Amino acid sequence: MAGAFLYPGLLFLASIATVSSHSQCLDNPPDLTARRHEAGTVVDDLAGFKAYVTGAAHSHRAIVLASDIFGFEAPLLRKIADKIGETGYHVVVPDFFNGQPVTDGTNLTEWIKLHSPVKAANHAKPIFAALKKERKSVIGVGGYCWGEIKRPIEILGAQYDVTARPKLVYQFVQALRQRNQICYYAKIFPGVKHGFACRYNDTNPFEVKTAEQALVLMLDWFGK
Ligand SMILES: *[C@@H]1O[C@H](CO)[C@@H](O)[C@H](O)[C@H]1NC(C)=O
Ligand SMILES: *[C@@H]1O[C@H](CO)[C@@H](O)[C@H](O)[C@H]1NC(C)=O
After folding, report:
1. Class for the domain spanning 10-223
2. Tell me: the pLDDT tens digits for 15-31?
3. Residue 94's pLDDT band (cuts 50, 70, 90)
4. Neighbouring residues of 27: CB distance < 8 A, sequence distance ≥ 6
5. Most CB atoms within 10 A, among 76, 92, 189, 219?
């Protein structure tokens, strides 16, 4: 599942509680050795965070992209950030995990306690302040598998997501419907599973195409 404007960490936490044996959050981890040409650069101190910064440096429209649990170094995530940047945004991907993303052997239960999306949302406030100081208005926040919600949200779910199942997405939509001041868009993509938008199999044409469609919807949403 993927969300444009903050991501339902709520769902993620809720689902960790219910998915005991296997979490799709851990499937197809990024290959950190598969370096590609990156359009952006890493800065050491964006309001106290290391961050990957890409796109139109002088644009007044900024997008903050939250990584999934594997962190801001994932090549496919940076590729997505570059693509968003190509459409005219200044894009920042902060290292919300302070150099401690999930790796082989991480105990997810313990990790999520140390890296709760709720805490991170508070820690992220100086990032927004710093961007505003640079006269950038933050248009949106996009995230994958990890985050929270207060603003208009687009939720892109996956048919075979056992972490944030379609049923959970529907429940979420019900909840959003009841708070009718929050505008939202939700879609379930057929034939794919959790992580489809940022951790897809990049040699599988169907998965690549689906992830591209998800990116187009995300860009449309930011455009709105
Ligand atoms: C992960 O941490 C939790 C809480 O500390 C513990 O109960 C659980 O046994 C650990 N799981 C593994 C696989 O070590
Ligand atoms: C990725 O997709 C290719 C082509 O469909 C397939 O051969 C390969 O096994 C897939 N890799 C994984 C990790 O699923």
Report:
1. alpha beta
2. 333 333 456 777 788 88
3. very high
4. 193, 194, 195, 199
5. 92
> CB under 8 Å to 110, separation ≥6 — which residues?
none
Q: Which of 85-94, 130-139, 159-168 has the highest mean pLDDT?
A: 85-94
Residue 184's alpha-carbon distances to 24, 46, 172, in angstroms, are: 25, 29, 10
Q: What's the gap between Cα 144 and its chain centre?
A: 3
Cα–Cα distance for residue pair 62/191, rounded to 1 Å: 32
The answer, yes or no, to whether any atom of ligand 1 lies below 6 A from the CB of 107, is yes
Give residue 144 CA to ligand 1 midpoint distance, Å: 24
C-beta separation of 77 from 198 below 8 A: yes
Count of positions (residues) in the chain: 224
Domain locations along the chain: 10-223
Ligand 1 pocket mutation pick from 104, 109, 111 by most atoms within 8 angstroms of CB: 109
Rounded Cα distance, 151 and 163, in Å: 23
Handedness of CA 67, 69, 74, 77 (dihedral sign): negative
What's the token pair of residue 178? 């009841």
Q: pTM (2 decimals)?
A: 0.80
Q: Which amino acid is at 187?
A: K
Q: Using the Cα atoms of residue 25, residue 26, residue 27 and residue 30 in order, give the sign of their dihedral.
A: positive
